[in-house]
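Same chain as my last thread, 172 residues:
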Amino acid sequence: MPTGPAEVQVRPGVEEDLGALTNLYNHYVRETPITFDTAAFTPEERRPWLLSHPEDGPYRLKVAVDGGSQEILGYATSSAFRAKPAYATSVEVTVYVAPRAVGRGVGSLLYGALFEALADEDVHRAYAGIAQPNEASVRLHERFGFRHVGTYREVGRKFGRYWDVAWYEKEL
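reply #2:
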């Protein structure tokens, strides 16, 4: 396990990552309210998601890997914010870090690489929805210049209770 972000490499996600990325996401599906998906996915079910994030353009997938073992430690994405054409210059961003890598700077490395990749794209705003409570995610987003713009109260039901989602915005 890396001891710090210097031993972590960030690169575009590739199809060979699909199994590991699916396993990482499924942890959050099964164990947390961070995502509002409620059933785990197979890699084949996640393939369209992976393929919707090419190496260029506004919809990216960045993967953090251990510099030695090449184990996936996390990923960050930018995706379409809404389907209607006028939203084309807005993206929704998210970051997921493997539980064993939380608190080691992996999320910051991922977001740094993602926003650097988006710098030359025709993207005006980034949005992030954070299921509450999640102070670590709030701190990460604020560190990257996001500001809170509102909260949807009890918008999702998972694990037998309702959850709020705080929405954050960043100018790009």
